[in-house]
């Protein structure tokens, strides 16, 4: 529904798109069968094939996460759940499975307490993806313009008042959804968040091996990459701890 | 084979039926633990006869005596054999001792060594250790020996009344040691005569400042002859301790105190006294050892970090892992073994730099050290159990152990090889999640599983493509705004047109009404009554319609009244106006009033229109 415009455009613009989609659909069914039969490595192989073909979908990432979870590859599972959640932030199943996978990681990272309003706003923002917010913004703009037209052309004073305030509200909401869409897009495209892959990673105080050991992270921990310097990445945890790890230990979501 | 020969020899020697019987059940005729010893007093006086006994705990042949240089053999060898058969809990054990005894006499002062004697047991040759015997100048009356005969008793008693010396002392092996270096302290009692009847009030030293361990505490005192300042004493070890100084400085060892009950022979009052033993008296004597001081030096200051108090000689350390390949969450252990001579008992486990993700538990220590007069030697084993919590290949840095070498007088560090361990993935990690130990949130999802995969065909999108910000998005947004603008322009134009019509009508209402009124006036003058009323009604309706922007066809008395009321015109005014219309309508179909009536209505109509022109102008 959210992507209908896009699908429509894609089909119109790319005559070969539908053929590729058909292949992806058959591979999708095949991988799902593998998963159902417990052949998780095969399922992962086929899902990865779809992904390598340039297709993306929250469902694809979710199923990949599941297959990795069943294979006990925790870091991969969390990575793909996070990717799925990026594309479909409000999906309860993805959030649930991500939590299940995170329960099995060794690091408990408590986020710094945030001003409650920011948390609310963040949760609200994650209710939809960038495209969801974009679509909503188009509808809201349409509603605003409609109400504005009503304000201009309705004779009844009461109705004119009503339509004016509705238009104002819709305009505010449209602006809000554009802001949220932009924020979501930044979150997805900046790819600053990453998942730790090795079983144990020592976080250093400086970007070289002589740096003091600050703390250790385990497989599946989520970090934010805030800087990069040659082969080292400056990371920050949700609880505010910062340090340097060698590039290659963390995979960006 | 050996046993058979032994049985045979027993049989041939004794030839007794009893042995036949015994042979059937003898199971422990021990020919393997052969010991061949020599016993003789260590110190003798010149001219004194003494015995030297060579004994072997087996049936022995081919006894070869040593060279008794310096001594004169008075008698011997005399061979004696004793045999012992024991039944203990139904098992029979047998022991046999053969001894060869010589009686020697020392000729001159000095130190002499009895060489090794040899003996053959079952075609195997055994030798004694060489024995040193010190010969001192005999006192005027020869010192009584243990084996002295009864006849000499009277003579001895007479002498010991004066030179009957007895003392105790504590002998330390070293008087200048490092802190932690072991030394032995021996409490000995010395007595010239053998007339000790018993001991009372024994007070052993407390060894303040030392870690002490008793290594020898004989139940019965074993007296041996010893030369002290050229005099023969019978000495016996009361206690022997191993000491480890724990403090530095001059440490004093408290005196050893004892009260001895001595048997003193009084001068016989009659010849029968001695015979009945009445001349012996018990005298109590309190003796104390002199205080012994041990100088304890501190260890050098430049101790490495891995030094944990070990002091001694020849320490060795080995560190290894019980297994070098385990799975995560599986228990394993590291074993560190330290051996050497010194305070092994007091050694602490060396530190291991564990990888951060290893959990370690209490160290299990097994002490295998022996404490003897030559110090403490042996080994101590530390078993450190650990559980790796995550998979991977880990290299534990080499374990370091430092001790202070007494011989070299410096610290010596021993380093093990690095310990490598491969930790495999926990095979049970998936089935039941019980991550223990690590600070982890409580596992609340036991028995739960992840949600199942999504099977519906998804709406594929291209990777890293977004609708938001795409040209299509802007296109759609632009189209919306464009549509709005177009709509707005269209609608506003139409409304403008519409508003113009209304305004014109409104503005021209008076004019139109007046034109109609003029027509009506002409009809009034010409006396056309129905035409007059019709024209007047049209003028009034038309005026209302134009003013109220209502089409004349849609006008009725009711909606006109309502529209007027909407325009803030009072009900009375509206009624006045509508009354005139009513009168016109009425007169149209029932003309009765004539020209006077017509003129009145005409004037009323003009007044009403003028009035409304004002009212509506004000309101607009």
Low-confidence stretches of chain A: 8-17
Q: What is the overall pLDDT average of chain A?
A: 85
The dominant shape of chain B is: rod-shaped
Strand percentage of chain B lies at 35-45%
- Mean pLDDT of chain B, nearest integer? 78
Count of β-strands of chain B: 33
Task: Give the helix proportion of chain B (percent range).
Answer: 25-40%
Biggest sheet record of chain A: 5 strands, antiparallel
Report the CATH C-level class of the largest domain in chain A. Mainly Alpha
The chain pair with the largest interface is: A-B, 66 and 55 residues
Write the SSE topology.
The complex is a heterodimer of chains A (253) and B (620).
Chain A lengths: L3 H10 L3 H20 L3 H13 L2 E2 L1 H13 L3 H14 L4 H12 L12 H10 L4 H24 L3 H34 L2 E4 L3 E5 L8 E6 L3 E8 L2 E5 L5 E5 L3 E3 L1
Antiparallel strand pairs in A: 2-5, 2-8, 3-4, 5-6, 6-7
Helix pairs in contact in A: 2-3, 3-4, 4-5, 4-6, 5-6, 8-9
Chain B lengths: L1 H13 L2 H9 L2 E2 L6 E4 L3 E3 L3 E8 L4 E4 L6 E18 L2 E16 L3 E5 L3 E4 L2 E4 L3 E6 L16 H8 L5 E7 L3 E3 L4 E9 L4 E8 L6 E7 L7 E5 L2 E15 L3 E5 L3 E9 L5 H6 L3 E9 L3 E6 L9 E15 L3 E3 L4 E11 L15 E3 L3 E9 L2 E14 L3 E5 L3 E6 L4 E6 L3 E6 L36 E2 L8 H56 L2 H20 L8 H10 L4 H19 L4 H26 L1
Parallel strand pairs in B: 1-7, 3-11, 13-22, 23-30, 24-32
Antiparallel strand pairs in B: 2-4, 4-7, 5-9, 6-7, 8-11, 9-10, 12-14, 14-18, 15-20, 16-18, 17-18, 19-22, 20-21, 23-25, 25-28, 26-28, 27-28, 29-32, 30-31
Helix pairs in contact in B: 5-6, 5-9, 6-8, 6-9, 7-8, 8-9
